[in-house]
Structure formats: C-alpha cells, structure tokens
Amino acid sequence: MISTKNVVSSEQLQIELQSLGMQLENLETGASGRQGGAGPSDHKAVQIHGSTIMVPVFNHTSRRSPYFARAANEMGVSSLFKEGEHVGFITFPKQPHFYSHFTSDGVPMWKVAQLHSHNVLATTILQTCIRFFERSTSCQFCAIGQSLKAERTIAYKLPHHLAEVAKLAVEKDGVEQFVMTTGTPNTSDRGAKLLYESVLAVKKAVNIAIQVQCEPPDDFTWFEKLKKAGADSIGMHLEAVTPEVRTRIMPGKAEVSIAYYMRAFEAAVDVFGKGNVSTYLLAGLGDTSEALIAMSADLIRIGVYPFVVPFVPIKGTPLENHGSPSLAFMQSILEPVAEMLVSAGMTSDTLKAGCAKCGACSTLKSFETKAKKIHAV
After folding, report:
1. pTM value > 0.85
2. Based on the structure, what is the number of domains in the chain?
3. Are 190 and 221 in contact (CB under 8 A)?
4. Which of 218, 297, 321, 334 has its CA 20 to 30 A from that of 283?
5. Do 111 and 246 lie in a common domain?
6. Whole-angstrom Cα distance, residue 266 to residue 262?
7. Are residues 181 and 85 in the same domain?
8. Per residue in 257-288, pLDDT tens?
9. What are the φ and ψ backbone dihedral angles of 80, each rounded to 5 degrees?
C-alpha cells in the first residue's frame, strides 16, 4: 500500500503529515475540523495504518504541502498522494452525533466541546487568557481568542454544559476520555478552581476519564482537590525549554520559571502518580533537539510524560508563517524519547487520560510501539 520512493516508514509518513499538513480535495470530509482556539488547531483527524492522528489542513503550511488527499469514496476511503505519487489510503472519523444537539439552555454542543481524534472530547473552559490580548505577553503561537471572535465557541463553558455534552458524547459517540484545558484567568490558582468545578459536574453525570490542564497554581494543594473531584491526570505545559526561546516565543508565560514548573510537576506526581502528569514540548520553535531530549530525560526521571509534538503554525497568529520542523529533526527527538519512555515503563498506554494517552497530535506513540518491539527481541 505504501510506496517506498517517497516514504520509508509509517512513522515517517505520519511525521511528515503532521509537520507539513495535507491538501484536501473536499474540506468537508469527515468530522468538522477545528480552526483557531487554544492548543493544537487548524487540523482534521485522519486514520492511517491503524493510528488516528491530527493533520493540519486549514493553515498556510498545509496549502503548500506535497500531500494531497482525494475526496473519499462511497466506503469513506481517500487516496493519499505525495507530489503526485500514490502513497496510501486514509479514512476520516465521522461527524459525532452530539454536534447536532443543544444543551438544556440552548447552546450548540459543538460550541461547548469538540471531538479530537476519534474518541476524545476536548474543551477550553475559559476561552480568554490574561496574556492573549497583549502581544508583548502572549504566547506567539496561541489562537485562543480567534474561535471566540468567530463565534465558533462561547466564552465560558458552565459546569452543566460540560456534563450534558460529556454524557451524550459517551452514550452516542463512544467517547472514552475528556480533556479540559483553560485560558489563564487573573487568579492565583491559574484556573484550577474552574477545572475543579467542571470535573465535579462531569463526574456526577457520567463515568469518563478526565485530564485537566492549567498553568502551575500558586498553591499545590489544588492537585489533591482536583484528584478528589475526579480528575485522573493533569497537564501543565512547558511548550519551550530554553530561556531564550521561552522569552521570545511566550514572554508572559516565561515569567513562570522552569524551576517552578519542576516543583509543581513533582508535587503533582505525588498526587496523580507516575506518568499521569504530562507536559507539551513543541518541537520546531527554536529549541535544539539536544535541549528537548535533555528536558525529556529530566521529566521522565521525576515521573512526568514529555509529550513531544511538532509545532503547527496557526493562521492569524504571529507565527502563522513560521516553518514546520523537518522529518529528520522530529525523528531525532522522538526515537530517543520513546526509548526512554519504554525503559521507564511510562508509555502512553499506561496513562489514565489526556493528550499523551490519546497521542493523536504526535507520532510519539508509534515510536513507543517500535521501541517496545526492539526491547522484546
């Protein structure tokens, strides 16, 4: 099925799709893609070689991509080409049922939460951030305000909104986990209180694994509160790891030192357990592969999962025309990080919930599988 002229392995194909994006003959294929907002965006979920990955299709990079997918046939299968050469077949998860429903107070459910991958519900509880509207402090890659401005979401998802959507998504769409992130409010808990209230409501309505995501709060007792509310894991995202890159790319967030993050990580691991604390590391913002690997090793040593993902430039942000990381760069990081995770017994399949367990925004999970096979020999 896969040509060896342009693509050497499934892992390499997935890396290139996630870094370079893909042109689509029919942008309406599969579930609606997500444009703007917090976290990974401008993409669609794609199923290939038994994996579901998020592939950019709406940003500037994807318009120049050498990859092109034909409209899906009657079986839902699309032919994938690279520079005109057929390299395989892909499918797309279907539009979830809950997208056509409304909350009890009339909010379209697709504005409350979105389907990520094929079985993950994701939401940004507070669709604003204290840093976003000042470019001198905002994270240069973030588009948290764009989807709100375009009226594709609402500013604050109330606990009952999240509970109603989660219950229906589990019952009708087979959703297995819920990732809750939030913009950072002007409070010392950094959004932990909002997450706490949301988790309580969702867990009361339906049994679903939940990951919460926020900046490190001022009071680490929030970790215990979140755990008791029903959160299964937590993510606190470094994104960049060297001082120069942090200051240049996310000047406001860089004021929270890496040393403070490390203290927060250690406190969170004491509560949630090894691996169920994770952090995004965005490869391609300027950190060297050596720096990202060294930070990953430090994180794994204390029980934190380093979720290494290729940086995807989002339209409308200061970095919308920033280059994407190369195949060689990503492979040079993912292979050793996967090896360390396997050696530590902390692979994505051992986690309870979250982006790292889903794995769709990175090819790290595929490299873990490859490393496991080597260890088994």
Report:
1. yes
2. 2
3. no
4. 218
5. yes
6. 6
7. no
8. 999 999 999 999 999 999 999 999 999 999 99
9. -110, 135
